[in-house]
Design a protein that fits this description.
globular; 332 residues; alpha/beta; binds S-adenosyl-L-homocysteine; single chain; 4-stranded mixed β-sheet; binds N,N-dimethyl-L-histidine
Length: 332
Amino acid sequence: MVALARKAQPPEEETSAFAADVLRGLTASPKRLPPKYFYDDAGSLLFERITELPEYYPTRCELAILRAHAAEIVQLIPPGAALIEFGSGSTKKARILLRAARSLACYVPVDICGEMVEREAAELRRDFPALKVLAVTADFTRSFELPAAAEAASARVGFFPGSTIGNFEPHEAAAFLRHAARMLGPGAVLIVGVDLIKSAEVLKAAYNDKAGITAKFNLNLLKRINRELGGTFKLDTFEHHAVYNRERNRVEMHLASLKRQKIKVAGESVDFRAGETIHTENSYKYSAESLAALARGVGWLPAGAWTDADQYFSIQVFKLGEERGGAEALKT
Ligand code: SAH
Ligand code: AVI
């Protein structure tokens, strides 16, 4: 079995892209940082701890839907297709589909965190010895090459669980769905997991856990900037804030400076007022209908939808349309 490990960019370019994004975000008003940088190895492991918290319901709900409906979901995967997961993390959810699926050409976990994707791929190869597991380290918002076996498969099926789609602005989510259509090509299927709109109390608790793991996950971004970009952030002078913005159906995460201070990052100086925040993440919540409408707008047609008993989470399957919408999505 051949294992493909691919770096999206050489490390130097990666570091300078990180530095440029951080400096752009910290000199903007209000200050912001892209959430994709949460996921260094430590951040990926902290996210895994979040998924086990009593307050963080999305993972449990999505796993329950997958376990209950795997047989129906895999019916929508064409025989001989390649399964490509965007933001594969622990691959726990893919394992449910992999156990239920009949004939897959290969499984391609794609993640920005190279350590995580390689570690998980090695475990999957042990647990599914007959499956070709072709790990790709890449930023899924950019074009990247799929392994040859995925290109040669009868069709490509995208898997985008975890409500990672909610970390995009809605226009970015539409752009990603269009990009996924182009990448997966004619006959593609896309399985998306999305967190549904619900009471503010449940949402606030999920992002303000009592054990403080979400706070650690948020602050880890500053730790990473210190380590990789020579930053001088003192972690105990910043505080994790997570609020629900009802008008925009999104949970916002911020890091608030507890005092007026000056920070050095990548050779530049950045000033903070007391109480000033860095906006680090949005986690948009959708209705089942609003996600379907977003997908339909870029050529993906609904093929199935499932929810959990509390209607907290939704898994939806889309197929590329043959008519105008599908052709539209596949235009370069
Ligand atoms: N699919 C898993 C993990 C979700 S967490 C689950 O459902 O539990 C989000 C995952 O997406 C992380 O593993 C993170 O490293 C990855 N990720 C976030 N932004 C990314 C990007 N731009 N490109 C590739 N991977 C990304
Ligand atoms: C990966 N993503 C969908 C998670 C979310 O819920 O937005 C990341 C996360 N942020 C805080 N807790 C979990």
